[in-house]
Amino acid sequence: MDTAEPAHADVVIVGAGRAGAQCALALHKEGFAGSIAMIGRETEPPYERPPLSKDYLASAKAFERLYIRPPGYWEEKGIRLMLGTEAVGVDPDARQVTLFSGERIGYGKLVWAAGGEARRLSCPGSGLAGVHVVRTRADCDSLMAEIDGGARSVAVIGGGYIGLEAAAVLTGLGCKVTLLEALPRVLARVAGEELSAFYEHEHRSHGVDLRTGVSVSELLGEGHVSAVRLADGSVIAADMVIVGIGIVPAVGPLLAAGAAGQDGVDVDEYCRTSLPDVYAIGDCARFAANYAGGKIMRVESMQNANDMANCVAKGIMGRAQPYRALPWFWSDQYDLRLQSAGLAIGYERAVLRGDPQTHEFSVVYLKAGRIIAIDCVNAVADFVQGRKLIEAGACPDPVRLADPEVPLLELLAA
Ligand code: FAD
User: Fold this and answer.
1) Residue 235: helix, strand or coil by DSSP?
2) Atom of ligand 1 nearest to the CA of 115
3) Does residue 83's CB lie within 6 angstroms of at least one atom of ligand 1?
4) pLDDT tens digits, the chain, 414 residues: what are they?
5) Nearest of 283, 266, 81 to residue 162 by alpha carbon
6) Which of 21, 123, 160, 190 could disulfide-link to 46, CB 3.0 to 4.6 Å?
């Protein structure tokens, strides 16, 4: 029988990714004087994930530049980093987390910031070597090793941001890329038709064989993948496959402990779960998004991870403020920087500002006349000003809105 007294930290953070790291940083900044332990399944100290499908994949940025803080920073600040280990259980009555090793850690407050696992294909052949996802440094390193080893034809499955970014980088590295999307258009879940059409055109003009409305029925190969078979029977040769079809939130232990949720863990406007003194933040947290009319959803973005973490730190310090931050996001593909603000959910009208052919334009999404979201391609001023219009709930004249010569801020009073 294990009679050893479990270790204890005033705040235990599960997940040493963006949200977990930011929570520890924010607690520090707020003057938190208690003990903090951060448990992370990966072996690396906290690092930024976005470059994994951008500069890091392109070998344009060394891994050392991805660290959120220098590796020694955390211990210097008295934050206990427990890496390469996993929280497998939560006992909300005893206020303890159990690690994979069996070790238990008591908590005063528990912050669940475990993100998610890359969703895998379930079709035959999905376990073959050469089938990759892009979620962690290890994922990225193993796919880069195949490229270095001579892989040249790549099938990317999934036309969301990660699949499209990977396709852009690999095309730049000289690979022959086929991108397969099951829905009728890429970015269908996050952007309007204009933006999807623009990105489809850009990828094709860079040589990507981009196919929408196709479903993968099987991956073929002897030990290592060599081709993808589609439901219509056609076969696409591929030295390797990259699967970018979303994530499965890492919330198993929390739900098993009785926390409410499904496809994530439910939190209220202070990021509190239904378990006492247990918060959840980042990609794994499901909340009523005030910028989406209260729709219950998870948001997978750096902004959301950071702002939820800041919200929890304030709550723990007794200065609770509700989480109401405006969502924003960016994506880099080729020479195109997309910056988005708000959530284009349930919009009734999309207004184009500028000419997509110039590679500098925006799409503004309106609902009941009000601006609810904006996508800006190489249009920083629109992004900065558009955010203000969304926050103000502006209802501008659509004709002036469509004129790129009219600065968005001029429409604020409308
Ligand atoms: P994560 O960063 O995933 O961190 C969670 C950590 O918890 C992981 O290290 C995980 O291993 C660990 N963990 C899981 N379960 C356990 C457990 N039981 N015990 C201990 N540890 C556990 N967002 C943008 O805004 N812009 C972008 O351009 C952008 N690009 C992206 C590109 C890629 C390739 C990826 C993968 C994501 C990108 N994102 C981008 C999304 C952004 O990185 C995430 O929203 C953000 O990292 C979420 O932070 P998180 O802390 O919730 O989760």
Assistant:
1) strand
2) 53
3) no
4) 455 677 999 999 999 999 999 999 999 999 999 999 999 999 999 999 999 999 999 999 999 999 999 999 999 999 999 999 999 999 999 999 999 999 999 999 999 999 999 999 999 999 999 999 999 999 999 999 999 999 999 999 999 999 999 999 999 999 999 999 999 999 998 999 999 999 999 999 999 999 999 999 999 999 999 999 999 999 999 999 999 999 999 999 999 999 999 999 999 999 999 999 999 999 999 999 989 889 999 999 999 999 999 999 999 999 999 999 999 999 999 999 999 999 999 999 999 999 999 999 999 999 999 999 999 999 999 999 999 999 999 999 999 999 999 999 999 875
5) 283
6) 21
Looking at the CA of residue 302, tell me the nearest atom of ligand 1.
25
Taking the whole predicted model, whether its pTM rises above 0.70 is answered as yes
Residue nearest (by alpha carbon) to ligand 1 atom 52 = 282
Ligand 1 close to Cβ of residue 373 (< 6 A): no
Decide: 240 in ligand 1 pocket, CB within 6 A. Answer: no
For ligand 1, whether the C-beta of 264 sits within 6 Å is: no
Helix (H) or strand (E) holding 399: helix 398-401
How many angstroms separate the alpha carbon of residue 23 from the centre of ligand 1?
A: 14
Instruction: Answer whether 14 contacts ligand 1 (Cβ < 6 A).
Output: yes
Check: CB of residue 229 under 8 Å from CB of residue 216: yes
